[in-house]
Write a structure and sequence with these properties.
The structure is a single chain. The strands form 6 sheets. An 8-stranded parallel beta barrel has the order 1-2-5-10-11-12-13-14. A 6-stranded antiparallel β-sheet has the order 15-17-18-23-20-21. A 3-stranded antiparallel β-sheet has the order 16-19-22, with no helix packed on it. Helices cover 33% and strands 22% of the residues. Helix 8 runs parallel beside helix 10 and helix 12 runs antiparallel to helix 13. Strand 7 and strand 8 form a beta hairpin. The protein has 493 residues and is an alpha/beta fold.
């Protein structure tokens, strides 16, 4: 795998539903045509994340059908939906075996082999914080979950449910939202739970090349203590972290196995210390959505060496579609940013076609939308250019920017960085604003030693010639329209 890989998230149930419609016959994991995988491997996706392959819960499905808020989301995302379109949440896992609706464990093993032969790794889900509220362990091993005490049940009745035999178990939750009422909260202080999860992880590692771990920070001892300490009471806090032990054990079996953490609250470094390769970069997403170019530059420079360990995205299954959240022009500028920063570049199923509707994960079918031809063509160019090894194996640095002339402060709207790999150099410049922006960009000083330089924009294929005496110590003059960008590769002459 390349140092900075590209990942493509696929909603498995919706993907199979679309292929079934496309080919006029039921398509499962075993019968996905090779051309579908080749079409994804060709633009250079290093990793395919099949989201939602594990067996779903009957009780979670019933909850998903009855939840008024979710029903409203279904109405917006898929007008005319029926109960057959609702499968329950893939994050209320009933069993870490392939859901019978889409195939078998053997089908998943064969699919991994197919993808690996194409040079693509397979990523699957692991949900550490909770399981489905009717998971078999709730009957056979209730000690693996957070059990309610009388005081907490009376104080927070919505946190708990009756699991049978008079036992009250907690729903999964984080400290800032209401409980997920289709789940049961695991107890990370339980050695029985930890040992069971270690075994599950070891088994799952045979089916894939890595795991995307949902809400990974909730498994940290300090976070679990904050959320559930007063409920679990006198239980002794483990001396080791769950993740450190789990990742260490698994990598003895699969040294190159990849761990990706969905992470928030500034706990990325803590999770990296436990062995995670990449962690979600939600702050960058928020800066791209709400901030300006100076804020974005300040953020990525403050991250220094950590920026290459982050997962950069402008949409995922929890966020609104990029073209809806950002608008088309801004979404393209933001996509150039996330595609050309060091780290893991993340794309979601439907993003490359410009889909506008976010489909709740409980649905197995999505609204038919017309492909946005402009966005589709843009992503084809971007994926082709950003797939080059220079962005995945090269060295990266932010470059300086100065005013185009006195009194013109629009250079503050420019983002600029440079990649180098062997003899290749590529300069990325983005006007991340709604106004024209001009400025002098200062790439590597070696450019001024050449008689002249030809710059080719890898996205527009336009060429620009600049003579060394024009640079005059100032750098490269840039003039960009709102949310316009340059993807410039240099050729010294």
């Amino acid at each position: 795998m390349r140092r900075y890989p590209d990942l493509y998230e696929i909603n498995t149930r919706i993907f199979l539903s679309r292929l079934t419609e496309k080919y006029g016959q039921r398509v499962t994991l075993a019968s996905i045509p090779d051309e579908e995988w080749k079409s994804l491997a060709e633009p250079g996706f290093d990793l395919i994340w099949l989201m939602g392959v594990w067996q779903r819960s009957p009780a979670a499905r019933l909850s998903a059908l009855q939840n008024p808020g979710l029903r409203q989301e279904y109405n917006l995302a898929l007008p005319g939906w029926t109960e057959e379109d609702v499968s329950g949440s893939p994050y209320a896992v009933y069993s870490y075996h392939v859901d019978p609706a889409i195939g078998t464990d053997d089908d998943l093993t064969a699919l991994k082999t197919r993808l690996n032969r194409l040079g693509t790794g397979l990523i699957l889900d692991f949900v550490p914080n909770h399981l489905a509220l009717d998971h078999p362990w709730t009957q056979t091993h209730p000690e693996r979950f957070v059990c309610g005490n009388t005081a907490e049940i009376e104080k927070h009745p919505d946190w708990f449910y009756t699991a049978g035999s008079g036992i009250y178990l907690a729903h999964g939750r984080d400290p800032y939202f209401a409980p997920w009422d289709d789940t049961v909260q695991v107890n990370f202080y339980s050695d029985s739970l930890r040992q069971a999860f270690y075994s599950e992880l070891e088994r799952l590692s045979d089916y894939c090349d890595g795991l995307r771990c949902d809400m990974a920070m909730l498994a940290l001892n300090s976070v679990f203590e904050q959320v559930w300490g007063r409920v679990v009471g006198e239980t002794r806090i483990p001396e080791s972290e769950f993740w450190g032990e789990a990742i260490s054990r698994l990598r003895k079996k699969h040294p190159g196995f990849l761990f990706i953490a969905e992470a928030y609250w500034g706990l990325n470094s803590r999770l990296r210390e436990q062995g995670f390769d990449f962690t979600y970069d939600k702050p960058l997403y928020d800066h791209l959505l709400h901030g300006n170019a100076d804020e974005i530059t300040d953020y990525i420079t403050s991250e220094k060496g950590e920026i290459g360990t982050k997962v950069h995205f402008i949409e995922n299954h929890d966020e609104s579609r990029a073209v809806t959240a950002f608008g088309k022009d801004k979404s393209m500028a933001a996509a150039v940013v996330t595609a050309t920063l060091p780290g893991l570049s993340f794309y979601q199923y439907g993003q490359l076609e410009g889909r506008k509707t976010r489909t709740p994960v409980q649905l197995t079918r999505e609204l038919t939308e017309t492909i946005d031809a402009e966005l589709s063509a843009f992503y084809q160019r971007l994926r082709s250019a950003a797939g080059a090894n220079i962005f995945h194996e090269g060295s990266w640095k932010v470059v300086g920017k100065d005013p185009a002339w006195e009194g013109n402060n629009s250079h503050h709207n420019l983002l600029a960085w440079e990649w180098e790999w062997g003899s290749r150099r590529i300069l990325i410049v983005v006007n991340y604003s709604v106004v024209h922006a001009q400025g002098w960009i200062k790439p590597a000083p070696e450019y001024e030693q050449s008689k002249n330089i030809m710059w080719r924009d890898k996205l527009s294929n336009e060429e620009y010639i600049r003579y060394s005496d024009e640079l005059n110590g100032k750098g490269l003059y840039i003039d960009l329209k709102p949310f316009q960008f340059h993807f410039l590769e240099s050729e010294n002459r």
